[in-house]
Write a structure and sequence with these properties.
The protein is α/β, with parallel strands linked by helices. It has 14 helices and eleven strands. A seven-stranded mixed beta sheet has the order 6-7-8-3-9-10-11, with helices on both faces. It has a four-stranded antiparallel beta sheet with strand order 2-1-4-5, with helices on one face. Strand 1 and strand 2 form a beta hairpin. The longest helix has 18 residues.
């Protein structure tokens, strides 16, 4: 049996920003391969500054890559205004702060209908807005038409943002920290909504988050990003129950239910304009610092030898000399 082609794929993607005041360019995305299948939810996980939002913006066509390619439904993404407008009808963005996403002077109806008006929706606008609000869990939808954002709770505002994405009937949504600004009691409702939309509509999603607990609850697959690259990827069960990369292990160790003492990483993620030689995590790696990499005979490789870019497929992969050494011994 042949594996169906991914709905969205990135191949050897690089996004570089010019350095300030003569500094070296910042390699925000530094060689990424990522696939998202139809009806699949993929979580992109990492600390702030690791490049995950830049990667998401590049997949949306908001940032043109310096090199590499993005393909959607088997076709390369084009960057003309007309092509991007058609693309964004099929791929929609949901931002983390619903208060910042919604114009305080626009009613809920106007906020949800905006996409229809931009794209020239030929059908019944009122019916389309009502259906989107209903699917987002705001029922009866007519009760929300004339409300303004300040009259809604945080969870209701996020549902309006989701309805504004759903109204165009996209095939994929990119949700950037979709519950980060919400109370804990509301987060579960929004995550359950994303899962329900996948079941009811066959919707695919890329969920960008720093929260591995969120990834566990909502994703089929997880891709862990560090300093512009995916360093570990696989099914959510494989990666989060048996993490192989020391960075993934450190991220998981601080969850409340994690066994043992949390791993405290020293320092901040390195500057993307000064990516270190060897494994890009080695300066903060608890395995290297604790002598385990030395005992495995890979300490020099950790400091000097770069690792291959991980493939975008759904197999479990890790970019770590120590993890590879453990498999071969």
């Amino acid at each position: 049996m042949t594996t169906p082609a991914p709905l969205l794929s990135a191949r050897d993607l690089h996004v570089t920003f010019p350095g300030r005041h003569g500094a070296a360019p910042a390699r925000a995305v530094d060689g990424v391969e990522l696939d998202i299948g139809a009806g699949e939810i993929v979580a992109l996980v990492g600390e702030s500054g690791c490049g995950k939002t830049t990667l998401a913006r590049s997949l949306l066509g908001l940032v043109e890559p310096s090199s590499g390619s993005v393909r959607f439904d088997g076709k390369p993404l084009e960057y003309s205004s007309r092509a991007l407008k058609a693309y964004r009808r099929r791929v929609q963005l949901v931002l983390q702060d619903p208060s910042g996403s919604l114009n305080p002077r626009h009613t809920v109806y106007e906020a949800v209908a905006e996409g229809l008006r931009i794209h020239g929706h030929p059908g019944d606008e009122r019916a389309a807005v009502a259906e989107a609000l209903s699917r987002a869990g705001l029922r009866p939808p007519e009760r929300f038409f004339l409300r303004y954002p300040h009259e809604l709770s945080g969870g209701q505002r996020q549902r309006v943002v989701i309805a504004g994405a759903l109204v165009l009937q996209p095939e994929l949504i990119v949700a950037d920290e979709p519950v980060a600004s919400l109370d804990a009691s509301v987060r579960g409702e929004i995550l359950a909504l994303l899962l329900r939309l996948r079941t009811e509509l066959g919707l695919s999603a890329l969920v960008v988050t720093h929260d591995l607990g969120l990834a566990w609850n909502v994703a089929d697959r997880v891709a862990v990003m560090y300093l512009g690259r995916i360093v570990e990827t696989g099914t959510v069960e494989q990666v989060l129950t048996a993490p192989r990369h020391p960075y993934t292990q450190a991220l998981l160790s601080v969850l409340p239910e994690a066994p043992g003492a949390p791993v405290v990483l020293t320092g901040e993620p390195p500057d993307p304009s000064r990516i270190p030689s060897g494994c890009r995590f080695h300066a903060r790696c608890q395995i290297l610092a604790g002598g385990e990499a030395e005992r495995a005979g890979v300490a020099d490789a950790c400091r000097t030898r770069d690792l291959d870019i991980l493939a975008g497929t759904d197999e479990t992969q890790v970019a770590c000399h120590w993890a590879h050494a453990r498999v071969t011994t």
